[in-house]
Amino acid sequence: MSTSDQWIFKKEDLYRTPSQTMGGSTYSEEKEARAKGVTFIVSVGMHLKLPQLTMATAALFFHRFYMRHSLKDYKFYDIGATCIYLASKTEESTRKFKDVIVACAQKAAKRDAPIEDSSKEFRVWKDTIIFTEELLLETLCFELSVEHPYHFMLTLFNNHYVKESNRSAHLRQVAWAFINDSLRTTLCLLYPPRIIALAAVHIAAKYLDENLNETLGDTWRELYEPDNQEIQDAANEIMDQYAQASNRNGRSFDKIAPGSKPGSEYQENNTPAYAGYLNSPAKLATPVYSHDASIVP
Amino acid sequence: MSLVRSHAEQQNATVYKDYKKDRKVGEGAYAVVYLGTQLSTKRVVAIKKIKIGQFKDGLDMSAIREVKTLQELRHPNVIELMEVYFHKTNLNLVLEYLESDLEMIIKDRSIVFMPGDVKHWMLMTLRGLDHCHRNWILHRDMKPNNLLLGRDGQLKIADFGLARDFGDRGRQLTAQVVTRWYRAPELLFGAREYGYGVDIWAVGCIFAELLLRNPYLPGNSDMDQLDTMFRALGTPTESEWPGMSSLPNYMQIKHYPRTPLRLLFTAAGAETLELLESMLIYDPNRRISAREALLHPYFFGKPRPTPLENLPKHVRETPEAAKLKRKAHVLGALDRMSDDTKRTARVLDFK
């Protein structure tokens, strides 16, 4: 069976997706639908208290699915829900099927009251997820084992960032938040996890005025220089979404205080994710992703 | 791009057409296994058909685990997952076909095991298991029945329906794993955080079974399993296994003294017993790892592991011919053995 090479695309492929060639969407419409779909995945995931890694896997499944199917044929809510359900199984963080259905129905309709298991709506969601799961697996070519930038980034910090200090924890959290935010974009279809991780660390360092050549020394140069161009491209891609958001809000990224960006829409109670990670000692002490121990080879 | 769109479905259809199910060879809890043929290559394969329809919660977790772990693991001593496809509402896993397993060989009383045979089987088992563990995957169902043997003698670990990742501190795992006779003491006491030790304990039991030609710790119930275990290996004390009494289902069991392994395994050499003993250490933190076990002197001493082609095989077609061939090998091995003895004698002969 093939490796994940088949899932890395060229930039121009994103202008020739099934949604655009057959579904009649424009590039920006598709981009928006993808972002909405992942926002839906993340909000259901937070509601079900799923680990960040599970949400990232669901988002990756979601983006891959729409490289082979059109948004016109498959509603992003249906696919998003199925991606969550499948990812919760592949990442060993299963939730009761019933709870997944109720959370999806609730978040898709943007309401507070949960639906009844006897309702027609419940049955429709259930049948949809079961039916779609098979199609999703087939579309993914059964590639259930996926890698994320988080792994690579944590290994980098664990192995090379010499002194574990507040500053390194800070840098890690910011880079982490940038990776979280990139889930909504098609970045994972363009670059391998390693490049995305390096790009996120690169931007985070710029954001915090940290000189990586000082703190990571030769390690950073060795990692950065061979792929300089690719990392730069990926970094620009990450920044694009903020630029667009700022344009809409009439603000520019530089002027936004840390804490108001990025990732505000990720939090349930409207506290921006970024601010949460930076300011709350509790969050700093318990990273969302508690996988550190097992990542170091 | 329309080509790409239907790519996955087309691929699925092509894959499906390439395989033919010949006959049913087994039925498990959640799947039926068929002997099949890959039409394009005439290769004999095993097709594991998982019924999806019967699970009201979508695709079963065992199927997901099996597909996911086998994709991550590629090793000569781990079964190969060749393809996956849907047909009707069934998920089909195409696996390489191996005709027998270690359980069949152990039960086949017409076969005599030489120490070198056991050594090679253990070597292959541990190599495969070490590969799993290095990829942070626990098998959680190691038993002779899941160690398949190919025509060429190669041993492969199969059935990853219970396998999952480990090494994540603080993550709770279920203690309801591993077939009872091979279940580690920490699992019997209900441990929710455990590691490679559970697989190693099971391998220790398999090792003992290969030496005895009978299951080593055949308990009748979960309770009886602990009793059987402690009767054979002695009841552990808190100093021998720190933390034992704080396990969720810990209970005090009658005190049995520890009897030295050599009293039961009379024919086994010192290194054999030493390795066996280090796999059957009660404290999972002190139990040997697959990697360490592979470096154990047992694997470097005499006799050498029997070459693959000479390993005993369970042959259905012509038992007579197999017996003859085997007899020749056993005689040969005995010959070689006495050669070794002679050589040692010569070295020791100072005149």
- Report the major sheet of chain B: 5 strands, antiparallel
Question: What is the straight-line distance between the termini of chain A?
Answer: 25 Å
Counted up, domains of chain B total 3
Structural class of chain B: alpha+beta
What is the helical fraction of chain B, as a range of percent? Answer: 25-40%
Summing up helix and strand content along with how strands pair, one would put the structural category of chain A as: mainly alpha
Strand residue content of chain B: 5-15%
Overall 3D form of chain A: globular
The count of β-strands of chain A is 0
CATH architecture of the largest domain in chain A: Orthogonal Bundle
Please give the CATH class of the largest domain in chain A: Mainly Alpha
CATH homology group of the largest domain in chain A: Cyclin-like
CATH topology of the largest domain in chain A: Cyclin A, domain 1
Sheet of most strands of chain A:
none
Order of helices and strands of chain A: HHHHHHHHHHHHHHHH
Could you tell me the mean pLDDT of chain B? 86
What is the fold named in CATH at topology level of the largest domain in chain B? Answer: Transferase(Phosphotransferase), domain 1
> Based on the structure given, which CATH architecture of the largest domain in chain B is correct?
Orthogonal Bundle
Helix and strand succession of chain B?
A: HEEEHEEEHHEEEEHHHHHH
DSSP strand content of chain A: under 5%
Keywords (chain A): Cyclin
Region (Disordered) (chain A): 250-272
Family (chain A): Belongs to the cyclin family.
InterPro entries (chain A): Cyclin-like_dom, Cyclin-like_sf, Cyclin/Ssn8, Cyclin_C_2, Cyclin_N
